[in-house]
Amino acid sequence: MLNIQQTNENDQVIITLEGEMDTVSTPVLEKEIKDSIETAKEIVFDFEKLTYISSAGLRLLLSIQKKKSQTGHMKLLHVSDSIMEVFEMTGFDSILTIE
Amino acid sequence: MDRAELEIEAVVDNLPLVTEFIESRLEAFDCPPRTQMQINIAVEEIFVNIAHYAYGKEKGTATVRAEISEDPVTVTITFMDHGIPYDPLSKEDPDVTLSAEERDIGGLGIFMTKKTMDDVSYEYRNGQNILTLKKKL
Q1: Which residues does chain B have within 8 Å of residue A22's beta carbon, measured at their own beta carbons?
Q2: How many domains in chain A?
Q3: Which residues of B touch A65 (CB under 8 A)?
Q4: CATH architecture of the domain formed by B2-136
Q5: Among residues A7, A47, A62, B45, which one has the fewest Cβ atoms lying within 10 Å of its Cβ?
Q6: What are phi and psi of A30, to 5 degrees?
Q7: Could you give the ipTM of this predicted complex?
Q8: Facing A91 at nearest CB: one of B34, B40, B97
Q9: Is the peptide bond between A27 and the residue preceding it cis, with omega within 30 degrees of 0?
């Protein structure tokens, strides 16, 4: 299960996630935030209530990061220790902006 | 030895049922949350691989077996399918030091599985792909 909340403000979108980013939920998320990713300059993910991420979630983050590195910015907030461990294991901690 | 088996159609939408099955087997053994997450990631990667590739466009099933032995408490999870012979462990590990631009999106799931499980093995026997994960709780 993944709950998705989006707040758009000026050129920024804040995407707050609660639950699990897995192979089933990630395509739903991708579809839901597609327009915001295209139009917003700054993408902010709030991961405070994200409890799980698999490679499906990592792939989505990587593709947004690649897209935004040219024309904008993406950052992650409130990353938990267990999610951080996944980022460190896969080298994503040096690819992503984590605050 | 605590042992149970789940036979299920190999489709991605069944992932929550597979995860639930494994979690329910581990419930009585005080699995630490960190270990549980690592196991869930590995289970997802292996099951999704089967769902995506084992049967091409045909339908097929996967059998998931969970065995828990004690001293020390160790879970062994075996995935079996009758699909196309394929060893996911034969794939080269991704280079996790590359920048975002240089990064390819494949191979991360199996890589994480190998990193976090105590043992991962594959064999093709009696017309079956058999992939086994072992993890001490």
Answers
A1: 15, 44
A2: 1
A3: 100
A4: 2-Layer Sandwich (3.30)
A5: A7
A6: -55, -45
A7: 0.90
A8: B97
A9: no
